[in-house]
Specification:
Layout lengths: L24 H11 L3 E6 L8 E7 L4 E8 L4 H16 L9 E7 L2 E7 L12 H19 L3 H4 L6 H8 L2 H6 L16 H14 L10 E2 L8 E3 L5 E3 L6 E2 L3 H13 L4 H6 L9 H19 L10 H20 L3
Antiparallel strand pairs: 1-2, 2-3, 3-5, 4-5, 6-9, 7-8
């Protein structure tokens, strides 16, 4: 199995964010007041693709917290994401390895959310077998916990994965219909657009879950840059603003794209994972089709006001996803 070289910028260094001194003085004062102690050091988070503030704050009483903040006017979408994530994390089962939320704050034209600061770093690519095994184990525990979610999560208001797929991950169907050009990096797809569109179109039915039922739920954004692995091997799953009704194997497939690119046997890892028990091969193929179409078309969308590294991430991920699917389908 071949290794696909990772993006030129490591996932732990993709962010372009303001630092603690860049925040308005009244916002910093409000955060300090909420903490009840002075901030003596701030370490800006270097991973991720938004331009919102995110940093570990060391306090005078020896505590560490992780704070995100965004402007209410021109970063309202980030504020909405942070508020939703805080509500989701507060309702997660205790067995889910997610940093706990402490408080939220709306002040000085900003919204801020405070989490426990946890040890760990974004895994480097190619994956080491040990790190990947630890992450897959943590995801298995998480998938089991979300298979029958607590009632508190039912009240948060979560979307259905099937509807997200129809609305946002149906790009091969758009290309087949002539409403969107074939994106760069999709040369292998040129003679297989009809098959890709069919796989993509079949996926919503395979992930269909009735919202508000007993479950299951899935993270819906499980990627290498949304996990932290500590030196001890402890894994934390972060960024919970896309939690939705759907099977956990959808995220298992998305996570394993980077394992495929690392030269590992992604098929064996997928079908051997507890979240994929009973999952038909067509579900994996449909997931890879939908993700590759979305990622490649977004990569071709031009400049963004998010991280300057976002388009490279999308292009690399889309090409790796399509390559995995092409291998499975036997496309040259």
């Amino acid at each position: 199995m071949r290794v696909i070289p990772p993006p030129s910028v490591p996932y732990g260094a993709t962010a372009v964010r303001p630092g603690w001194p860049d925040l308005p003085a009244d916002l910093r004062a409000a955060i300090v007041a909420r903490l009840g102690t002075q901030v003596i050091w701030a370490t800006t988070a270097t991973g991720g693709f938004t331009r919102g503030f995110a940093a570990v704050l060391d306090t005078a009483d020896g505590d560490k917290v992780f704070v995100k903040a965004a402007r209410l006017v021109d970063q309202r979408h980030l504020c909405d994401w942070y508020a939703h994530e805080a509500a989701v994390v507060a309702a997660l089962p205790s067995s889910v390895p997610a940093p706990a939320v402490r408080w939220t704050l709306t002040t000085a034209g900003h919204f801020a959310v405070c989490f426990d600061a946890v040890p760990g770093s974004v895994p480097s690519l190619p994956w080491s077998p040990g790190s990947l095994s630890a992450v897959l184990s943590a995801w298995a525990v998480t998938g089991a916990a979300l298979a029958a979610p607590p009632h508190a999560l039912l009240d948060v208001g979560l979307p259905a994965l099937s509807e997200l797929l129809r609305a946002d991950l149906s790009w091969w169907q758009e290309i087949l219909a002539g409403r969107y050009p074939l994106p760069p990096g999709a040369a292998v797809a040129r003679d297989h657009i009809r098959e890709l569109a069919a796989l993509e179109a079949a996926l919503p039915a395979l992930v269909a879950v009735t919202p508000g039922a007993a479950g299951p739920l899935t993270h819906c954004d499980l990627r290498v840059d949304n996990v932290l692995v500590a030196d001890s091997g402890t894994v934390w799953i972060c960024d919970w603003n896309w939690l939705c009704w759907g099977p956990a194997w959808f995220d298992t497939a998305g996570l394993l794209v980077s394992a495929y690119a690392s030269g590992l046997d992604a098929d064996a890892l997928f079908f051997g994972h507890p979240t994929a028990a009973g999952c038909p091969p067509a579900a994996l193929d449909g997931t890879l089709a939908a993700l590759s179409g979305y990622l490649l078309t977004r990569a071709a969308a031009g400049p963004t006001d998010a991280s300057p590294h976002l388009r490279e991430h999308q292009r690399w991920s889309g090409e790796a996803t399509l390559a995995w699917l092409a291998d499975r389908q036997g496309w040259a």
